[in-house]
Amino acid sequence: MADEQSNKQAEAKKSFLAKQKLIESSKTSFQLFSAVLKSASLYPEEHPILRAAAEKLQSNTEELLKDRNEVAFYLMGGELFFETISIPIDQNLSSIIEQFTERDIGGIVFKPEITAMEFIRFAGMMNKEKDLFAELISAHERMAKEGIAHITLHRAILVDKQMGGAIKAEREKASDIFTDAINSLKEVVQAVYLNKASNMRKVTSVIQTMVDYVLDDKDSLIGLTNIKMHDEYTFAHCVNTAILAVSLGTYLSLDKPQLAALGVAALMHDIGKMNIPPEILNKPDKLTEEEWKTVQQHPVEGALLLSNVRDISKLAMVVAFEHHQHGMNGYPAIEGEHKRHPFSQIISLADSYEAMTSSRVYYTNRIPPDKAIRILLNNRGITSSPALLQSFINMIGIFPVGTLLKLDTDEVGLVMHQTLDLMRPRVLILTKFDGSEKETGELTSLVETTGGKYKRSVSGIIDPNMAKIDVKRYFD
Ligand SMILES: [Fe+2]
Ligand SMILES: [Fe+2]
Question: What predicted TM-score, i.e. pTM, was given to this entire model?
Answer without folding.
Answer: 0.61
